[in-house]
Design goal:
By secondary structure, the protein is α+β, with helices and mostly antiparallel strands. It has a single domain, classed as Alpha-Beta Plaits (2-Layer Sandwich). 25% of the residues lie in helices and 37% in strands. It has helices at 15-22, 49-60, and strands at residues 2-10, 28-33, 40-46, 66-73. β2 (28-33) and β3 form a beta hairpin. A four-stranded antiparallel β-sheet has the order 2-3-1-4. It contains two helices and four strands.
């Protein structure tokens, strides 16, 4: 199982619109609004790296009002609870 964390920056006043769309995506396990440089923190999970990558590049990044994303891929051997 592959896991990545995605930091999303949205257009001002569209954070909840983006959040609603993000939560509809299969593979998105969690999404949280945040303060600071990024607006939303997302946990993405899939069977393979390609599936996770496709969720980020073909779905999350294409949501209207998403300005930018930063993806943190995890190291499976260093995972913890």
């Amino acid at each position: 199982m592959e896991i990545a964390f995605v930091l999303v920056k949205c257009e001002v006043a569209h954070e909840m619109d983006v959040m609603r769309d993000v939560l509809k995506i299969d593979g998105v396990k969690e999404a949280h609004g945040t303060y600071g440089m990024y607006d939303i923190f997302i946990k993405v999970q899939g069977q393979t790296h390609k599936i996770v990558s496709d969720i980020v590049t073909k779905q999350i990044r294409k949501i209207p009002h998403v300005v930018s994303t930063s993806t943190l891929s995890t190291i499976p051997e260093q995972g913890g609870k």
